[in-house]
Amino acid sequence: MNSRNLRIDTGMSVSFIASAVIHLAVFLLLAWYGRLMPLQTPIQETYYVDVVNLPTANPQSGDSAQKPAESEAPPPPPVLTPPAMALPPSVISPKAVSKPAMVPVPQKSEAPDTAFAERMAKLERSAEARREEAVFDKLRSKLKTGGSSKIGMPGAGGAEAGSRYGDYIKSRLEDALKVTSSYSTKNPEVVVRLTIAPDGRLSGVKIERSSGDATFELAVRRAIDLASAKFTAPPGRTVYENGFVFKPKSISSGTSR
Amino acid sequence: MAIILGAGIVVKLVLLLLLSFSVVSWGIILFKFFQVQRAKGESERFMDFFWKSKRFDAIASQVDRFAHSPLTVLFNEGYNELKKVVESDSKSDGSALSTDLGGVENVSRALRRATNSEITRLEKYLTFLATTGSTSPFIGLFGTVWGIMTAFEGIGKTGSASLAVVAPGIAEALIATAIGLVAAIPAVMAYNHFQHKIRVLINEMDSFTTEFLNIVQRNIAGK
Q1: Does residue B205 have a pLDDT over 90?
Q2: Cβ contact (<8 Å) for A11 and B34?
Q3: pLDDT computed for residue B16 by the predictor
Q4: pLDDT tens digits for A125-151?
Q5: Closest to B196 (Cα-Cα) out of B33, B79, B75, B64
Q6: Are the C-beta atoms of B158 and B165 separated by less than 8 Å?
Q7: A contact test, residue of B18, B31, B64 with most A CBs within 10 A
Q8: How far apart, in Å, are the Cα atoms of A183 and each of A43, A124, A219, A223, B168?
């Protein structure tokens, strides 16, 4: 009976060793699989695109997929005069600038008679003319403020409060604060003065006023660090300096120097 | 792996406990699998040998070949008891086996005792499988509840409830339930499987007991 018990004990220990080896093998297999196919990180790179109106395409003419014949006979490019600095300001109709969306959409399939088609064509031509005027107006204003003509870059001077560069910086800071936001008091507020060097590098961060919430201050600092990696150079290669009021849900820009 | 390393201390302890449960239960599963397989195979071969043999002493000399079969234990116990009865009978009145059926009762009791001890041996450690199967999911659930509590605490502190903040904490917590289920499911399946196999072996032992007693009684009546 003793030899029988001894045999059972040996069998048990062999089984436990085998079990431990199986578990170790499964663990290593999972680790290897995890290294082979790492989990995708939830934070993905964000691409910022500034949408600008260009006088090269008519948004109401539909895309190329709806017009297969377009590849055979491409429409003539819109006649563009160079940025019309010489145009008199009276040409710019405020109505055309403020209400570009009110242009009626031509629907060719519902135009049975030629009179109606002519009328629609006339309306379309006038809408086109007004849209071009609006675009030229925007280009002129951009040139006046000394903005860069590079597409996708903030174009305003950034010298005044609420300018486009200021809005751009504010937007980047808001995005970063969404990631880092944390606070321990009810309505924390931090006023920070940022200085951005001509090359887009953040050269100065100064906390001017704080509601005393250290957690929120840390979150703001982290947000500034995060956002500053993506700052573009201020327009005109000048030093940009502005105060920003950080709140948990929003950021407002103060006065700039 | 990062999901486990990033978990809290309580969740880590729960995972460690569940891992040890899993290792032990798989050890028992492997041990029981080979034990039951050998018992079944050797029992079949022993029964063949038993019915081919004409004499108990011939069987007793060869019984070590089937050491893993529970039937050999029963045979040894019954045979030894029978020998004792025969010896005591021959001492008392000098004749061979008496027609007194008290001797058969003794053998029957010895076989019953051997059957009980074999059932105990076969069912040994199975309770651990049952315990693992029934408690592991709850232990895992405890780890999950604790992990989610910690995650919510973190959300309250940061004041942010975005998916990026909530999701990792909950994923860390849910791994405990997953490991609990991984430990429990094989344990429950193995427990049911071995219960069935052991029931078959118990039936074989009962049949063997009946046959053995019949043979003994026939021999006593034939004298």
Answers
A1: yes
A2: yes
A3: 93
A4: 888 888 888 888 888 776 665 544 444
A5: B33
A6: yes
A7: B31
A8: 21, 54, 8, 13, 20
- Hey, what CATH topology would domain A164-256 get? 3.30.1150
Please name which of A178, A163, A162 lies closest in space to residue A220, comparing C-alpha atoms: A178
Task: State the nearest Cα–Cα gap between A241 and chain B, in angstroms.
Answer: 30
DSSP lists the bridge partners of residue A207 as: A192
Question: In chain A, which residue's Cα lies nearest the Cα of B122?
Answer: A8
Residue in A15, A43, A175 to test binding to B, most B beta-carbons within 10 Å = A15
Q: Which residue, chain included where needed, has tokens 């660090």?
A: A225
Which amino acid, one-letter code, is at A127? A
Domain spans in chain A, listed from the N-terminal domain onward: 59-144, 164-256
Instruction: Please provide the average confidence, as pLDDT, over all residues in chain B.
Output: 86
Candidates A1, A3, A12, A179, partner chain B, best to mutate (most B CBs within 10 A)? A12
Residue with the bigger pLDDT between B203 and A180: it is B203
pLDDT > 90: what percent of chain A?
5
Partners of A15 on chain B (C-beta within 8 Å) are 27-28, 30-31, 34
- This model of the complex carries an ipTM of 0.78
Contact: A23, B157; criterion CB under 8 Å: no
Answer whether B223's CB lies under 8 Å from B97's CB: yes
Of B31, B67, B167, the CB nearest to A11: B31
Place of tokens 């490019």: A77
Residue A100 CB partners (closer than 8 Å, separation 6+): A130, A131, A134
